Structure formats: C-alpha cells, structure tokens
From TrEMBL:
Name used for this protein in its record: Uncharacterized protein
Organism: Halosimplex pelagicum
Coiled coil (residue ranges): 141-168
Assigned keywords, A-Z: Coiled coil
UniProt-listed InterPro entries: DUF7118
Entry annotated with the keyword Coiled coil: yes
Region named Disordered: 346-368
Length: 391
C-alpha cells in the first residue's frame, strides 16, 4: 500500500479539495473577465493591433541599438523604410492607427536619440494595453486549465488512497487467529520442491535445453522468466559448447582464452556471447516458478497454477524431483476449492502487512475518518470539474 500522495499526519483531504475548488472558481472568474475585455473590442481588431505591434517590436529589437545616435546610414534608411511599410500596410480603420502614424513620424527623423525611443514607447502604451487583453486571456485560460489539471490529478491520488484505505479496512477485519498454515504449508512445500527440481534441471540439462525451456516459457505470462538474450541463445544453439551445462559455461567464462583453447572450439565466441551474459545466467533460478506468500487472490492463483503446471511439466520428467513438485503444485491449485481461501488469505495478508502503526490507526478509528474525508474530497472535486468543464 502506497502513501506517497498523502501524509495522514499532516494532509487534510477536505481542506486541500476546498483550496483546489476555490482556485478553480477564481480561475474561471478571471478567465470570464479576460474574455469580456477581449469582447469589448473584438478579437479581429485586437489581432490586427497585436500583429502590427509585434512587427514593430521585432524591428525595434533588431535595429534600435544600430540606429540610435551616429549609426550606419544605410542601416538607418533600411530601418525607416521597414517602419514606413508597416504603417502603409495598415488598413484605414485599424484600431489605434493614429498611434502607429505618430510612431512612424517619430522614427522618420534624421537622427534618433534615447529620448525619441522613450517617446515612441510612451506613444505605444494604448497599443500595449490592447495587446495585453489577448495576453491576459491566454494566461487566464492557462491558469484555468492548470487548475482543472490539479483537480484531476488530486482525484487520481484520492482514488489511490481510498483503495489503500479500503484494503487496510479489509485487512483490519481479518481473523488474525485463522489457521493460515492451511495455505502456507502446501505453498512452502511446493516452493521447496520446485526449487530443488529446477536446481537439478539447471545442473543436469545442457545450456541449449535450459535456454530453450526458458524461451518457451514466454508463452505463459504468469510465469515471469526473463527471455534469454538473442546472442546467447544463438550461441548455445550453434556451438558445441551449448551441450555443456550452464554451470560449466560459467566456469569456462572465467578462463583465459589460451586455457579455453583446450575446452571449446571458438574461445572468442564464448567470451563474446557467454562472458557478457554471466549475470543473466547466474540469476536464472526457480523464482519465477514459485508461489508468493501471502498468496494472491483465488482466481489469479487458479490461472497461475494452470500455467505453472504446463511449464514445470516440461522438465519434470527429466529430474528426480520433478513429479513431487507437480504433486505439490496440484495441492496448491486446489486450495481455493478445498479451503476457506479468502478468509485465510486475508488473515495471512493482515499478519504480513499490518504493523503496530496500522493496527493503532484501525483501532482508533483514524482509518475510518480518513477514508470518509477522502471520499468527501473526491466527490467535491468531481462535482467541481462538472461545474467548471474543460474548454
């Protein structure tokens, strides 16, 4: 159970939800006001003003330093021509046309000073005020979208926390005195037997047969063997050394090339394909064939036991401990049918997962209180998202 999104000691789900709803409401109101300011003028008119202003400021950024004071005459003429072109291209009824004409006049002088630029920027103030209507609306829209996203993310966090708390309640209701050994003993017996059987298979089978077995296990998603690397698999299939056991190959991998000459036909190939895969080969054990404790839910155990039966049967006949492992696995597979499985499983999970702090929170009612608060907060946020829909 993960508490990453919540700290029960400091986090008040209802208060956080209230803050998020307030931010969402304020963001919506701010967006409405920003839209009204745009509508007062009209977006097409504001866009035309903003485009002209952008063209001017682009030229200012490019030329201001070069054309102020005693600059290059050719550059100065080039700048003034481009400023004049912007004004000439404006429609007759464009908003603030008189401002753009005033700016053009201020810049069409034989010499520009810092004070001239101050006058230009002052003259453009009403244009910037109009441009800000669009900018403010964009910022308000982004704020509103961010507020919705924060609420959606919090709902996801609350859903995860609610699931954790409900699971904690379920464990708290478990019968801690239930005879969990009725499940544990068959599972431990199977795990011990399959570990022994696989160890025998690993030591006696050729690397070629062992890796072929592991590769075929890919067809069983509930038996999570890591697939053999392609280069290693190809090596054991195409070289005589593949007839050796994995243990022997690992021993060879420690030899020098000169020593390997006495044991394998192509020392370079073994070094290249086996030495680089020693970690994979060393980790190849029975872990994917074992059953977890505490056990999984009944339906999952049934499906997994069915797949395990198919996989274990592939090597059971080849080793002395194979049949006992299959017999023990059949006992495990029957547990959901022959026992009060869920009660015993809940008890096993509770014993494994409930520490002193969790037990105290359950007995004090803190878990119930937090669960109620999380549910209320989640409902409040869901209602708010419905009230304040996506744009």
């Amino acid at each position: 159970m993960s508490d990453a999104a919540f700290d029960p000691a400091t986090d008040d789900p209802r208060a956080v939800a209230d803050d998020l709803v307030a931010e969402l409401r304020e963001a919506r109101d701010a967006l409405r006001r920003a839209r009204d300011r745009v509508d007062e003028v009209g977006e097409p008119e504001l866009r035309a003003v903003a485009d002209a202003h952008d063209d001017l400021t682009t030229l200012f950024d490019r030329y201001e330093e070069e054309v102020t004071g005693d600059g290059d005459f050719k550059t100065f003429i080039e700048f003034q021509s481009q400023i004049a072109a912007i004004t000439e291209d404006l429609s007759e009824d464009v908003r603030h046309r008189e401002v753009f004409e005033e700016v053009d006049d201020l810049l069409q002088q034989r010499r520009l000073t810092d004070s001239d630029w101050t006058k230009v920027r002052s003259a453009l103030e009403p244009v910037r005020a109009d441009v800000s209507r669009l900018d403010d609306r964009d910022e308000a829209r982004e704020r509103y979208e961010d507020a919705r996203f924060a609420a959606e993310r919090r709902i996801d966090d609350l859903a995860d926390r609610i699931a954790d708390l409900e699971d904690l309640q379920r464990l708290g209701d478990a019968d801690l005195d239930a005879p969990t050994e009725r499940l544990r003993d068959p599972i431990e017996t199977y795990n011990d037997r399959v570990a022994d059987a696989f160890a025998d298979f690993r030591s006696s089978a050729s690397a070629r047969d062992l890796l072929a077995f592991v590769a075929k296990a890919d067809a069983y998603p509930l038996v999570p063997f890591e697939s053999p690397p392609d280069d290693l698999r190809e090596y054991v299939e195409t070289h005589d050394a593949g007839e050796e056991s994995v243990g022997q190959l690992l021993e060879y991998a420690e030899y020098s090339k000169s020593k390997l000459d006495h044991y394998v036909g192509d020392p370079d190939a073994l070094k290249r394909n086996v030495s680089t895969r020693r970690t994979y080969l060393r980790r190849l054990d029975a872990e994917p064939l074992t059953v977890d404790w505490p056990p999984v839910e009944a339906e999952t155990l049934r499906y997994r036991a069915r797949e395990l039966t198919s996989v274990v049967a592939r090597f059971a006949d080849a080793v002395e401990d194979g049949e006992p492992a299959l017999v023990a696995l059949r006992d495990v597979r029957e547990l959901p049918r022959e026992t009060d499985y869920e009660r015993l499983r809940n008890s096993a999970q509770a014993r494994a997962q409930l520490g002193p702090e969790e037990r105290e929170r359950l007995s004090s009612g803190a878990v119930d209180d937090e669960l109620a608060a999380c549910r209320d907060a989640k409902e409040r946020l869901e209602d708010a998202l419905e009230e304040y829909p996506a744009l």
